[in-house]
Structure formats: structure tokens, C-alpha cells
Specification:
The complex is a heterodimer of chains A (369) and B (293).
Chain A: E1 4-13, E2 16-26, E3 31-35, H1 42-50, E4 57-62, E5 65-66, E6 77-80, H2 92-102, H3 107-121, H4 136-148, E7 154-158, H5 166-183, E8 186-191, H6 194-200, E9 203-208, E10 211-216, H7 218-223, H8 228-233, E11 240-249, E12 252-258, E13 263-267, H9 272-275, E14 281-286, E15 291-292, E16 304-316, E17 320-327, E18 330-337, E19 346-353, E20 358-360, E21 367-368
Parallel strand pairs in A: 3-8, 3-9, 6-7, 7-8
Antiparallel strand pairs in A: 1-2, 1-4, 4-5, 9-10, 11-12, 11-14, 12-13, 14-20, 15-19, 16-17, 16-19, 17-18, 20-21
Chain B: H1 2-42, H2 46-51, H3 64-72, H4 83-113, H5 119-128, H6 134-148, H7 154-178, H8 182-190, H9 195-203, H10 208-224, H11 227-232, H12 240-249, H13 257-292
Classes of the chains: A alpha+beta (369), B mainly alpha (293).
The structure holds adenosine-5'-diphosphate and magnesium ion.
Adenosine-5'-diphosphate binds next to strand 2 and helix 1 of chain A.
């Protein structure tokens, strides 16, 4: 177990820069999730940590030791790959013990280690099989077993669940979380699935184009995004990002949105950044769960604003009902209780929880606080 | 109505089938005819061939032509039969095939899994080797063999065939390994396996289909080669193909067609056996490469 530190890391393939100055740190026993759209450099960063790719510049530190120049097998890490990467010609048992065999670990010791992980992951009855005789979920377990048996300082996971079906993915997610609790080993976990990121992480790094956009706790990332990209990427359904204009009304700041019948005014917090935008366009961001039916709204909030909205479409989704509202020239999604009585093509009173609203500069996408 | 339509369709497909099979059978006869002629005539006494019909079955069956071709027919000036040359060929083919296949596999492994700056160019140059006509390299090759002290030896021929085969063997293995998941190599690296351990423990066990393709390809080419054999071999290293030519051209009076036929079949036999034994792997391997590569 050890902390992991990445300092000013750059990686280029020829002229294409893939990672552009990454700085991250995760404490001993932490669970760091790297999340971002496909092609943003998550796997490349993970491979740099593993030593499977050479860094162009920068440093990777595990514990107190810089490992930047070390061979992957010397870094005291274990990795689970997206494709599982089980050796096709070896049985499950051999797959798990291959690393120990290469390192010259004795037979009886190997045996004991195999049994240990086989019990922990409940794959005892699979030990004699070849990978081709396993289901996706079983392969995934074996791949985890191969990593666990190394008992490393840091586990690296590259989209380990993305090849599983939806149900199994949720189960394995819980299982990974349980394993982490039990062993307390530091984990770096790559995913493009923001729900996986939010449920697993103690720290999340949201990446885009080889740059870390925001690094923080799941709560910070979700409720306090630094820019529009993070706000939009995290959360499902995505945050409503609606163009509006800052105006002064009754002595307070307001944001004016194009509503169904003329403008709709919502109060803004009194901040320098927003006052400086008087008369200008901003982006008003509100998550669907903060835009809901008055009965289902957060009653502890002191900033509930009820407004009449024109509901275009209603989408019941079992546990929730989603309502699509035309607002600010866009389709905004409101998340209502499952049994909210609401019909399409009608005007309904909905509540905006302004305590949860965030604002952005429309050009740079930066947060306005 | 639909029943009738189906009937017509059935009849149509049956007619097509008959046509297809007829054509196939005709082609088969066309291709098997030479073999039939060679085989029947190699089992006849000489006067029966000269007196009569090439297509007739032997009246007096005899295996004497085979014994002559194998062990005492005149090859050039020596009445040795083809046997020593058959052995020369084996000593040439086996190492040439094994070495060029092994090196091709290593090349393919490096080019796909340890690619370096300029590895594309290296592969391009190796590919070019597949397209250089043999005749162009004859004289430079003769010089090099001379300089190495390998002129006229079986080792020299092994070297020539290995070098000439590398382009193809590398191409085969490179395309096959390009489809081999790189994550497996990375997993093995993390497990601590080195360059050769990864090759031997991870890639090699999955390489049987392409190895069979490469071996058949190389075996056929090296065994059937005439030009390098006739150019670079000496008395004690002459391969089968050249010896067969010498057998046919040895002009001691009458042309012994029956012996020539037997000799030709002997010369073709090893490649035939290789195909029959592993032909289906050949097709399977080619398909695997085609689909995955
Ligand atoms: N070996 C390579 N050579 C050149 N470009 C690469 C190489 N590997 C990855 N890239 C590029 O780096 C970028 C990031 O890739 P990757 O780290 O795999 O993204 P992610 O895992 O976030 O989807 C991509 O644009 C990809 O095209
Ligand atoms: Mg990736």
C-alpha cells in the first residue's frame, strides 16, 4: 500500500501530444478514478503509471520512490485490462500463477496463493479451465485474481467492466468496492462511465484532451464543477445548460431565460462575477433533480423558486418521471417523482432549487461564482 | 402456387448443382490426367511405352523403373540413382525451412509488438525481397557464398533459401501477430516475463496455424527450387530437382521414359505428402490470417 503521485507528466507520440502536464496525487488506500470521453488519454496515463509507455517528461512516484525509470514488473503494481488479457493457452490456475512462476516463487507457495484468491473471488471450480471456456463475468474475475495474487502497492484498472452486460457491471462494481474496502490497497481506475466514477471513487480526475479539467472528491465534481465540460460530462441525465441574460430587477440580480410565454426570471446569488456580467449572456446550469415538481422538491432548500413551465414531453422511467420543458431555447429535463401527476402539452408549476444552480461563461465555459 | 414456385426453385438448384459437379469433375480429370500418365507409365517396361498407347494400363506390371530411378540410374556420369540427391535435398530443406520460419516468427513478433522507429521501413524492405526476381541476385550471391567459403555446399544453399524465404515468412507472421492482442504482451510484461519468455510462453503456443502455413510454403518453395540449386550446388550438394533434370538429360542411348516418370514422381512426393498431411491446416491458417489480419 502506498500513495501515488504524478508530477507534471507529459506524453507525446511523435508530434501528437496526448498528455499535457498531468498533476495528480492519491493518498494511501485511496481510490482514484480517471474519467473522460474516449480518446482523452486515460489509458495512456494508466500505461505511463504502469511503465508500459515511456513518459516524455515528468515523474511517477509510488510510496516515496520514483518509478519513472523502472520496468513494469519492478514497480510493484498489478493491472486489470479492458480485454482481461488472459493468456489463451493457459488454464485459469496458470494464468494466475504465471507471474509468480516467472519470479521463481516455489510451488507450494504458489499453490497457497492461488487457493487464497480463488476463495476470495469464488473461482475455485474454474481453476482447471481455459479462458475460452469462461463467461465474460468469469474472465473478469480471473483477471482480478491475477492482479490480486500479486498483492501490489497499487492496482491499475483500465475500463475493467466495459465488456460486461449492464446487470453484471453493477454487480462487479459493488464487488470491486467491497474488495477495496477489505484490502485497502490504492487503486487507479479508468472509465468513461461517469456513474462508475461517482460510485467508486474517493477522488475523481475528469480529463479532456490530455488535460485534467478538475480533480476532487465525487461531491466536489458533481456539485461544484469548475467548468461546463465537467458539469456536462458528469451526471445522467446531463445537467441542463441554458443560455440566459443577467438583468437587474427589484434591486437584485436576475437571470432572464426565454420561457414559453415571454421571459422567465430567476434570482441569482449576489456575486461580483455575476454582477460584472450585467446585460450579458451567461449559461445557467441546473441538474434535472434540482428542477422538479414542488411536492418532490428538496424542502430543506431555502431557495426554491416555483415557475409555470410548458411541458412538451413526459417520459416515465420507473423510479422517476422525466419532463421535457422548453426553456432558454433548449429542451430542459426536469426530474419528477414517479407518481407526479403531469401531462404533456400542459402548463405546470415546477420548482427550481436555486441553491444547486451553477453559472458559466458561454465563451470560455469557465464557472462564474 | 408457392409450392409450385418452390418446386421450380428446387429443380433450378438441382440443375445448377449438376452443372457445377460436371465442371468440377472435368477439372479434376484434367488435373489428374498427368499424374495418371506418369504413374501408369512408370510401372511399364520401356518397350510397352514405345510400342503403344500412353494412356493404357501396363500389360506387364513392373517396379523396376522405380528401383532404377531410386538407386542405379545414370545421373550425369554416376550410376547412383536419385537417392543421394534426395538426401541432399532433405539436408537442405529441413534446416532452411526451420530457420527461416523461426526467424520469420521472431521478425513478426518484433515488428508488431516491439515496433521501433523505422520498423515500417524495415518491413517494407523485407517485403521487397518477395518481389526481387531470382536471376538478379545470382551473381552477387555467388560472390558472397564464395567469400563466406560456402560455395557449392549444402550450408550455402540453406543460407540462400533462408534469406530468400525471410520476406515471406516475416509477412505471414507479421500479419498474424498484428491481430494478436497487445494487451497480452503487456500483461506478461507486468508479470515480469522478458522478450523471449513472452514470445515462447505467450505467442508461440498460439501460432500453430500460421506456422503450418509458413512451413508448407517454405518447404514447397525450397524443395522445388531449381535455379539456386543448379547455380550454387556442387557434386555433393546437388538437390533433387537438379538431379532429376540430369537424369532426364543423361544421354546414354535410349530415353528411359518409365524411369524418368518414376523419378519425377519421387521428386514430387515430399511436397505431395506435406500437402496431404497438413493441407487442411494450410487453408485454415490462411483464412485465419485473412480474417484477422
Ligand atoms: N501508440 C500510439 N501512437 C499514436 N497515438 C496514440 C497511441 N496510443 C494512443 N494514441 C492517441 O492518444 C490518444 C489517447 O488515447 P487513449 O489513452 O487510449 O485514450 P482513452 O483511453 O482515454 O480512450 C488518442 O487520441 C489516441 O489516438
Ligand atoms: Mg482507453
Amino acid at each position: 500500500m502506498a500513495r501515488l503521485k504524478i508530477e507534471n507528466l507529459y506524453k507525446a507520440y511523435g508530434a501528437t501530444e496526448v498528455l499535457k502536464g498531468i498533476d495528480l496525487e492519491i493518498e494511501d488506500g485511496g481510490f482514484l478514478v480517471l474519467v473522460g470521453p474516449s480518446g482523452c488519454g486515460k489509458s495512456t496515463l494508466l500505461n505511463c503509471i504502469a511503465g508500459l509507455e515511456d513518459v516524455t517528461s515528468g515523474d511517477v512516484v509510488i510510496g516515496e520512490r520514483s518509478v519513472t525509470e523502472l520496468h513494469p514488473s519492478k514497480r510493484d503494481i498489478a493491472m486489470v485490462f479492458q480485454s482481461y488479457a488472459l493468456y489463451p493457452n493457459m488454464t485459469v490456475e496458470k494464468n494466475i500463477s504465471f507471474g509468480m512462476e516467472i519470479r521463481g516463487v516455489g510451488k507450494s507457495e504458489r499453490r497457497a496463493a492461488i487457493e487464497g484468491v480463488a476463495d476470495m473471488l469464488q473461482i475455485r471450480e474454474l481453476l482447471k479451465r481455459k479462458p475460452s471456456q469462461l463467461s465474460g463475468g468469469q474472465r473478469q474475475r480471473v483477471a482480478m485474481g491475477r492482479a490480486l495474487v500479486r498483492d501490489p502497492q497499487v492496482f491499475l484498472f483500465d475500463e475493467p467492466l466495459s465488456n460486461l452486460d449492464a446487470k453484471l457491471r453493477v454487480d462487479m462494481r459493488t464487488e470491486i468496492k467491497r474488495l477495496h474496502k477489505r484490502m485497502g490497497t490504492t487503486i487507479v481506475y479508468v472509465t468513461h462511465d461517469q456513474i462508475e466514477a461517482l460510485t467508486l471513487a474517493t477522488r475523481i480526475a475528469v480529463m479532456k484532451d490530455g488535460i485534467v479539467q478538475q480533480f476532487g472528491t465525487p461531491d466536489q465534481i458533481y456539485n461544484d464543477p469548475v467548468n461546463m465540460f465537467v458539469a456536462d460530462f458528469m451526471g445522467s441525465p446531463a445537467m441542463n445548460l441554458l443560455p440566459g441574460t443577467v438583468v437587474a430587477e427589484n434591486g437584485g440580480l436576475m437571470v432572464s431565460l426565454d420561457g414559453h410565454e415571454g421571459e422567465m426570471l430567476l434570482p441569482l446569488p449576489d456575486s461580483d462575477a455575476l454582477r460584472g456580467r450585467m446585460g450579458q449572456k451567461i449559461i445557467f446550469g441546473i441538474r434535472p433533480e434540482a428542477f422538479t415538481d414542488p411536492e418532490g422538491a428538496d424542502r430543506t432548500s431555502t431557495q426554491l423558486e416555483k415557475r409555470d413551465c410548458f411541458v412538451e414531453v413526459v417520459e416515465p422511467a420507473g423510479s422517476d418521471t422525466f419532463a421535457v420543458v422548453k426553456l432558454g431555447g433548449k429542451s430542459a429535463v426536469a426530474r419528477l417523482r414517479a407518481d407526479a401527476r403531469i401531462s404533456p402539452e400542459t402548463v405546470t408549476s415546477l420548482a427550481f432549487n436555486m441553491g444547486k444552480a451553477v453559472f458559466f461563461d458561454p465563451d470560455s465555459g469557465e464557472r462564474l461564482k | 402456387m408457392s409450392g409450385a414456385a418452390q418446386d421450380i426453385a428446387m429443380k433450378g438448384s438441382r440443375a445448377t448443382r449438376i452443372i457445377i459437379y460436371t465442371v468440377l469433375i472435368l477439372f479434376m480429370i484434367f488435373y489428374l490426367l498427368p499424374l495418371y500418365v506418369m504413374l501408369t507409365n512408370s510401372l511399364k517396361p520401356l518397350d510397352e511405352i514405345r510400342g503403344g498407347d500412353m494412356l493404357a494400363l501396363p500389360k506387364n506390371w513392373t517396379i523396376e523403373p522405380w528401383r532404377a530411378a531410386w538407386s542405379y540410374a545414370q545421373i550425369g556420369v554416376e550410376p547412383t540413382g536419385l537417392r543421394p540427391y534426395f538426401i541432399n535435398s532433405i539436408f537442405m530443406v529441413v534446416p532452411a525451412v526451420l530457420i527461416s520460419t523461426a526467424l520469420g516468427a521472431l521478425n513478426g513478433y518484433v515488428l508488431t509488438k516491439w515496433s521501433f522507429r523505422g520498423s515500417g521501413l524495415v518491413f517494407g524492405l523485407l517485403l521487397l525481397a518477395c518481389f526481387i526476381p531470382f536471376q538478379i541476385v545470382l551473381i552477387p550471391m555467388a560472390r558472397i557464398l564464395g567469400m563466406l567459403g560456402l560455395a557449392g555446399t549444402t550450408s550455402g544453399l540453406v543460407l540462400v533459401h533462408t534469406i530468400y524465404g525471410l520476406g515471406f515468412t516475416t509477412l505471414f507472421f507479421r500479419n498474424y501477430y498484428a491481430a494478436f492482442p497487445t494487451e497480452l504482451v503487456r500483461a506478461a510484461q507486468i508479470d515480469g516475463a522478458g522478450f523471449f519468455q513472452i514470445f515462447w510462453r505467450i505467442l508461440a503456443p498460439s501460432s500453430a496455424p500460421i506456422a503450418v502455413v509458413t512451413i508448407i510454403w517454405q518447404f514447397t518453395n525450397v524443395w522445388n527450387d531449381f535455379l539456386f540449386g543448379v547455380s550454387f550446388a556442387d557434386f555433393d550438394s546437388i538437390p533433387m530437382t537438379v538431379a532429376l533434370n540430369n537424369l532426364v538429360n543423361s544421354s546414354t542411348g535410349v530415353k528411359e521414359y518409365n524411369v524418368h516418370f518414376a523419378g519425377a514422381i519421387l521428386a514430387a512426393l515430399p511436397t505431395l505428402i506435406v500437402y496431404i498431411v497438413s493441407g487442411r491446416y494450410f487453408v485454415r491458417g490462411l483464412m485465419a490470417g485473412a480474417v484477422k489480419g
